[in-house]
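Re: the 207-residue chain
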Amino acid sequence: MNSFERRAHQLGYRSIAGIDEVGRGPLAGPVVAAAVILPPDYKNREIKDSKQLTAKKRDSLSEIIRQDALSIGLGVVEASFIDEVNIFQATLVAMKEATLNLSLTPDYLLIDGSHRIFVSIPQETIVKGDTRSVSVASASIIAKVCRDRIMEIYDRQFPQYNFSKNKGYATEEHREAIKKHGHCKIHRRSFIVKDKSLLHVNAEMDF
């Protein structure tokens, strides 16, 4: 899991940040990205793609990563901006924001996926990077835990949608809640419009 980091170190880079995002698919809530710089030759066999971990395990690993990492940056892009620019562009913005929010400036980036971000730092994209790079996997865990906690806060504001359980994803329960209550300020209107099962939601029911 640290072969990409080792190779970058061999090329002379010293401050390597892994970057990943969560929340591309939900009907509600932000997209959240994290950037994580780990110590050289860092190893932790338990760190893996956040989707392969239970919520309890993600929480415990998130605390370990926060203790061990040299620097962590977060980027949060809310639903209104996602609607304005589209989810792809919003994801790149969140990743850039996470990178710029690192307290330690990286000299090399390992980015999950196949798209580079708009910063003047040498970077490498890694398809399925959250299963192949410890830095990227760590970023996926940090981003997921952060986003889940944001959605739990939103659940207290809008309990009718049960965001603490569905985290904004398009579960049947969530769809039925939108049909009954309309959308709230954290729903991605562009996503709702594209969801054929929600074509008849009253757009005026917004709060």
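The two ends are 45 Å apart (CA to CA).
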